[in-house]
Automatic annotation (TrEMBL):
UniProt xrefs under PANTHER family: MANNOSYL-OLIGOSACCHARIDE GLUCOSIDASE
Protein name: Mannosylglycerate hydrolase MGH1-like glycoside hydrolase domain-containing protein
Domain spans labelled Mannosylglycerate hydrolase MGH1-like glycoside hydrolase: 26-406
InterPro entries: 6-hairpin_glycosidase_sf, 6hp_glycosidase-like_sf, Glycoside_hydrolase_63, MGH1-like_GH
Similarity comment text for this entry: Belongs to the glycosyl hydrolase 63 family.
Amino acid sequence: MRDEEARNILIANDRGGYTVPNGRVYPFQWNWDSAFVALGFATFDRDRAWVEIETLFKAQWTDGFLPHIVFWQDDPGYFPGPERWASGTDPLTSGITQPPVAATVVRALWDQGGVADRPRLEALFPKLMAWHRWFWRYRDRSGQGLVVALHPWETGRDNAPEWDRPGAAIDASDVAPYVRRDTSHLDASMRPTALEYDRYVALLDFGRERGWDHGRIAAENPFQVADVGLTMILLRADRDLLALAEALGRQDDASDLRERIALAEQGVDWLWNEEVGAYGSRDLLTGEPSGFITSASFLSFYAGLKHPDRDARLLGHLDRIGARVRYLTPSLDPADPGFDMMRYWRGPVWAVVNYMIGQGLAETGHGAMAERVRRDTRDLIQTSGFYEAFDPTSGAPTGGDDFSWTAAIWLCWAG
Ligand code: DGY
């Protein structure tokens, strides 16, 4: 029953070669949404799964950058639209990126399909490689093996409390007037605050005023955070890209990837917060650790990291949090005073993050906890439907409905 519903959501949100996350709230192609959506399509239409990723990479810039939004056609229901970004590209896009899950998804498609898909893999591989090199070059300028986010939207966890203190450095006092559209579709209590939006738009304007020159923006941006989510996800994706490089016999790329993986395995130490016993993001400009335990703290398993002492502390947190809320994994530790079960990335559970956490736990030998995370995801969707996110205490839906990546995760993992 739910399987058919999930497939129908993907089909209904298909705009011809790409899938919108949700027709009203997010009416364009989003980068990491599309990658997860491909996993859903792969369960019933493998060709369509590849096409989703191929379409996304048609919007890649010549420097390897892959935008977080592609505006294949305009839609007045979303702000900030293509005119505010003014990318000057064809197609028009945003000027910031998003978590690089695409290589991991392409590896999954390749593993499922095998040799018949080799021409498609050969065509995509250099594009994936160029995007990863873009991250290494522009988002790890000091070569620490980390990924620096220059906009909260790049992390995918838009209003996580990890951005509050670093965000205070953003001057949003003279942002040109704008009208939010998200709060005309959804209750404002589920969305970022006005101050957060002013900061998002100020950073957007900052990049546009620099002509989306990624080198210059990386040097001058007032917000520079080594994000635990992006760092773990890129490390995982580098490992998957390495497997693809080896399958294709691309020795030079494979050796660069090995080097970057080794660097990242060391670099993540800087994100370990011994005091709280968890990984967390860190402000690159001040060196200050965020001090928060979020769902991204548990992506170290997905990144393939094995560190018995740290893993034990992380599993201890999952046990504690899992005893406090009905559904793992809340996007913020429920013991935090700022925990808000309905507000976007300050409490709600997200199916895609659970997927990454669950996969990582299973792969690193923590089967019981992996199964709890998968079961909770299944129960949430079974009970409440294919929503954007869910209240971890009651399971109540939050955000948009008929959500593509929630449907995809049901099909490929949770259901
Ligand atoms: C939004 O508009 O809320 C998106 O998350 C930005 O990518």
